């Protein structure tokens, strides 16, 4: 008879948490995804005519183009500085406008919103649609409406960023403690007052982190918006490639890479400084305080809905610490500086009232010409081409990224110096935007999905290697160490101690890479690298806005479907 202890009985009766399929079902899901990836990869190779011979010939043509681009011809320092400043201002203006629009949109879209229920479905539809259509696709539309220049680029960045910022902020709003909001409603406060006084202060740290992360992404996107005439340093790149001045194009690409890498380092430093909880040297009183007492005080404050007492203070703060200390002064100064930079960025867009009013006829023509959408067989074939190109590149990139991740992660690399070299190489490769790769391959190989596949293959490999290496380093090292200590070989310890833990993360990150590759495939098509993006640019140039509307709808549906399937698979596997 098996004896049970109180602890054993307590564990047996505890809440099992969210139900997950058994291991056999999870294994079938993983095998099914693997078979689907292999099938899609084979179909992609057949579709674009990729073979070892064609790949070798394509790489040889690309190598000849790179030799023609050497040495790089850097633009004058003044021109480079102005292009970089314009690129940064586009990103700041677009991110700021998106943040301002996302706050009310997130509150309306949240399930905890107690206002008019009919507003929630339209708000969620806006969040999904703006997130599904890439920035460059919006840039093409806004260039047609507002003309060439940074205004179109900033608006494109803003509209696309609303989807991500509002989505993440909606999740943060729904996860906040509802007791203070209910207490405020019980006192007669309206929904706007409740949101501003009880919810917004609690989600503001999350909002700051989301905006900083999105700004990092938007700076990368702004660097290539000029390819379609939306301002920034991309204008110079498109001009150089269009005039076959490959030396100047190489110099501009070097500037873009250095700019993106420096801003990535700066973004990491800013996030660590701004979002890290304030670490204060504990006083004698706090060192001797009981942890249980602090928990009880916090629980009592939450139960009473008290937002002004000790329980409402940030972590590590006591009542006598409230005041204009160094941290608060720095935060206020940072907020003021951020507001000034945002206003300067808006002014740099030249929002002339006459220009804005002159855009209304163009906007009216675009909107009226979009209905009804004109779906066609060519459009569906272009969407299929983008889908195959993205999924095939993501599958091959995941396989190559796994190899590089095994060389990079500290717990699997065979040689530490090799890990450092590969890690630096991946950082440089990730620093080059996908559209730049596409432009180079189109210049070397010509128009078509072949160039787009190679561009997505490179970017997916670098991205997957980064995700996989981070996941490998976060695994439990005990199984691997135990197998090594009893004499297991390196491959045996990996197969039995690391790989079983890594399979869920490998699958989830691989699906995420496929989701990103699908969005980017639309962007690459705009540069002539196959897919539906080229068809979209052509429809706008020929004023076929009904075709444009059909393309936008098709892109949104496909991206949302892939995103939903990836989310379901991750939920069952992770």
Please render the helix and strand layout as text:
Layout: H1 6-13, H2 23-48, H3 52-68, H4 77-109, H5 120-132, H6 135-146, H7 150-174, H8 179-186, H9 191-222, H10 234-242, H11 246-275, H12 284-287, H13 291-304, H14 326-348, H15 353-369, H16 377-408, H17 416-431, H18 434-445, H19 449-473, H20 478-485, H21 490-526, H22 532-541, H23 545-573
Helix pairs in contact: 2-16, 3-18, 4-5, 4-7, 4-9, 4-14, 5-7, 5-23, 6-7, 6-22, 7-9, 8-9, 9-11, 10-11, 16-19, 16-21, 16-23, 17-19, 18-19, 19-21, 20-21, 21-22, 21-23, 22-23
Order of helices and strands: HHHHHHHHHHHHHHHHHHHHHHH
- What would you call the structural class? mainly alpha
**Low-pLDDT windows of residues:** 1-21, 277-320
Q: Give me the oligomer status.
A: single chain
Shape: globular
Distance between the termini: 36 Å
Please count the beta strands (DSSP E, at least 2 residues each). Answer: 0
Question: Helix tally?
Answer: 23
Explain this structure:
The protein has 574 residues and is mainly alpha-helical. 77% of the residues lie in helices and 0% in strands. The protein contains 23 helices and no strands. Helix 2 packs across helix 16, helix 4 packs across helix 14 and helix 9 packs antiparallel against helix 11. The longest helix has 37 residues. The two termini are 36 Å apart.
